Task: structure prediction
Amino acid sequence: MAYVGRRATGVGKRALGKSAEEVNRDIQLRTAQHIFEVLGELKGCAAKLGQLLAIYELALPQELAEPYRIALSRLQDAAPAMLPHTVHAAMAASMGEHWRSQFREFDDRRAAAASLGQVHRAVWHDGRQVAVKVMYPGGREAVAGDLDQLRRISYLAAVFLPGADIKSVTEAICASVTEELDYAAEADHQRAFAAAYAEDPDFYVPDVVAQHGDVLISEWIEGTPVPRIVASGSRSERNRVGMLMVRFVTSGWGRHGLLYADPHPGNFRVLSDGRLGVVDFGACCAWPPAGFDELTLDYCKAIFTGGPEALAAATRRHGFVETGRAFDSEALYAAISPCGEPLRHPTYRLTTRWLRRQVLRTTNPRLTNVVRQMTMPAYFTPFARSFLTLVGVLSQLEAEGPYRAEILRWLPELAAAFTHDEEPACTTRPVDLGAVRRRRAETGERSWSVG
Result:
């Protein structure tokens, strides 16, 4: 009803002579304020949303930033530390009454906040230093209530993207958050990543020590948190960490068939030996789904060597526009093509200013903005989360590096997107990327170190 009221007010203002662009921007502002007010009242998902949204603040238009920051501050402060007796009760509920016998030491003080719980430092019975992640009591019920609230306000996103299938994307997001409550699945994801990156010269994934109910115990990581490097790291440190994060996400997809979907800076530590330690595998999944490699190749070829017609064909082929909807292919290319700028150069430096330009252009409230008419298939949601979060962190770091070369190292099939050929990109049949992936896995290609 609030949205309807804002639309009616907008019609009245237009009648008083205010331009359509001004009216739409006013509607967006008021809608954003309402959304952020609701987000600020969430409980179960508060910390998780706070982590994700802290990255996206970089790209917000200035006039939308203030209500956002207020809601964000509420989200980040919404999860007070559990008192010791609450921690003990949660541990007993998952590990049994004699849970302390499994540890030589257990620190009742919270060492870190997890998205839906908190982490304690302990010493396992065999002497290993461990991190114990405990879910907040009642966390599932709080999250379920929050997701119902998000479903109720999700239609407001149509103000920003009127062509999107908001319901399907919202359900995909809700499913992803719900899956992060499954510590058994998270333990399986972490074991898969730990095995994939065992003895890797660039990365360290801690082993899972044990998992019982809503308690996940992993080897402890000691290192410099990436947020500290964002705040005070040297230029070389920021560049190196940024490129390592790109490598971890891209090599997981290209080499191991795994997507790390939550590359938030708080999930990374720089170890004393220079490796990048990675934690929190609740949002991960097997990747890519059928057809995704072809989607990536089609879009890259259209953007880098094809042109507007090729991009329009790829957009229709892969379901990013509703069947039968007409759109301006030239305008779509003009809106999306600049986003590929980091891959057009041997090296490129991402900045918050660059990121903000991309967001402002693609979310322009004018009715003529073709991006507003696009949609997003639900299966694309985990990749969109991973990619957008990663780009946000790289922009925070202002990381400079050879992005194209790094991506092509792990996804060499995309090299065709940067080479002109005689056949139009929109009609070229994709190579058998599944065969390429199998050959790459069989050869056990190793990573190379960042200099």
